[in-house]
Each structure stands twice: as C-alpha cells, then as structure tokens.
Write a structure and sequence with these properties.
By secondary structure, this protein is of the alpha+beta class. The chain has 9 helices and 5 strands, in the order H-H-H-H-H-E-E-H-H-E-H-E-H-E.
C-alpha cells in the first residue's frame, strides 16, 4: 500500500502574524502621534526637578561627578574630593549641629539630675535634724535619692504580727512623725507597706500583698485624721514581700523587711 505523502508547509510566516504585526505598527504610530501633540509644562518640570535635587542631592547643571572633569567611573580618584563635596553641601555642619544639640540635652539632663540630688540632700538634712530633735533616730532610718527623701519605720514597732492595726504604744512615735511630715505639706508624700516572705492566709488577709496594703492604708488614715495634711497630696500602696532590704532566711532579716516607708518628694521631682 502506498504511503500518503506529508503536506509541505507553505513558505513565509503564518497569515495571523502578518495581521498582528500590522496592528502593533498602527498602535505605535497612534501613540507617537499622541506624544507629538502633547505639551510639557516647563514650570512644573522645573519644580519637579528642584524637588528631586533637594531630596536626593542630585548634582546641579547635569554634572555627573563630584569634581569638575572627574567622572564617577574613575573610582578611587573620586574619594579624594568626597570630603570637600560633603562640606560644600552643608551635610557635615548639619550633622555636627545635631550632635551638639544632643550633647546639650544630655548636659542639661545631667545638670537637672544634680540639682534634684542636691535638693533631696538638703531636704534629708532637715528631716534628719527633725528626727534627731524628736529622739526618733533608733526608730527611723533616713535615705534619699534624686526624687525623694525616705523615712523607714520598723514594722515591728507599728503592728503586731499578721495585723494591720497600729499598736497603741506606737502612736507617740507616729505622732512625732506626723508633725515632721506637716512641715512638708506642699510636697507629695507616699506611704508604702512592706512585709517579709512568710506566707499568710486568713479570713481577712489572703496574702502579704493585701496585708501590706492595709498597713499602708492604716498609716494613711492616721495622717488624714490627725494632721492638717491634704489627702490629695498623700499616696499609699502595698508592696508585699517583693522589695526586701534584708535576708528573709533569718528572723532579724524578716523583721527589717516588715516596715513602712514614707517618701517625701522634693520640689524638683515633678511629683
């Protein structure tokens, strides 16, 4: 049986490619015609160019190098004039100005911190004189920071174990402390209660956090009821067992951790 001879493809490109090529040429001519009829707003173009120049430091007059006659492609030779170019643009001056401003801010902050510390030190000396005058040196410790002067009262002389009521025999001491605090009625005064880490859980106090809060509140209530201090200038909080000042593994350490701290903020502290 004879085999069928395969059809020989016609020479040239397929007919659809010719049609497609004509279409592309027509579209190209159409857009070229549109572009030739458009106009460019010279003023807007200059504004755009100026904006790019300011933002990205584009070289003026179409220059392609930092130095006259030295092309970017020259590589290492370009570095010789880099410092000069940066200085000419004012970038170095701006950087130095910002560094100087930061240094000035840092110096002002340090000076302010020194002033606060000096104010607290002066306040601490006055409070210490009052404590000595009232014969309270054995019952109160005085410390200070740049923010406040702190009076630390031993909890063992103020409260019975596991209780938040002020002891009767502690009232004379508290009364003397109240007189001292009245001298600084214009300052913010903060009362903090602290405990040791021995767990507590009873019908009234479910934890040391609650106990310390009630002890601070007891001192707050005494000052409000027995002094002329403005309650708006008084703050109280319970800090629980979380800021110990001594080792909780010994009875002596736990006794030191059971305490009331009264902070008198100096006038520069912002409190």
């Amino acid at each position: 049986m004879a085999k069928r001879k395969e059809d020989t493809p016609k020479p040239g490109a397929p007919a659809w490619q010719t049609t497609f090529g004509d279409l592309m040429n027509l579209l190209l001519c159409f857009f070229v015609l549109l572009f030739s009829m458009s106009t460019v707003d010279a003023q807007k173009f200059q504004m755009i160019a100026a904006s790019f120049s300011d933002t990205f430091s584009i070289f003026s007059a179409g220059a392609s190098a930092i130095g006259d006659g030295v092309l970017i492609s020259n590589g290492v030779s370009q570095l010789n004039e880099l410092d000069q170019y940066i200085n000419s643009t004012g970038k170095t001056a701006e950087s130095e100005s910002k560094v100087n401003e930061l240094d000035e801010v840092d110096e002002l902050a340090q000076e302010m911190e020194k002033a606060k510390l000096a104010a607290s030190e002066e306040l601490a000396e006055k409070v210490q004189e009052s404590v000595t005058e009232k014969s309270l040196d054995k019952d109160i410790d005085i410390t200070f920071t740049s923010q406040y002067v702190q009076l630390t009262l031993k909890g063992s002389i103020l409260f019975d174990s596991g209780k938040a009521e002020l002891r009767e025999d502690a009232l004379p001491i508290i009364s003397k402390v109240a007189v001292i605090l009245e001298r600084y009625a214009q300052s913010t005064i903060e009362i903090e209660g602290h405990t040791d880490n021995v767990p507590i859980h009873n019908a009234r106090f479910e934890s040391n956090d609650v106990l310390s809060s009630y002890r601070a509140l007891a001192m707050f209530n005494y000052l409000v009821e027995n002094t002329t201090l403005d309650p708006a200038m008084l703050k109280h909080s319970g800090r629980g067992e979380y800021i110990p000042v001594a080792d909780n593994s010994t009875p002596e350490g736990r006794a030191k951790n059971r305490r009331i701290e009264i902070k008198i903020y100096n006038t520069l502290s912002g409190e």
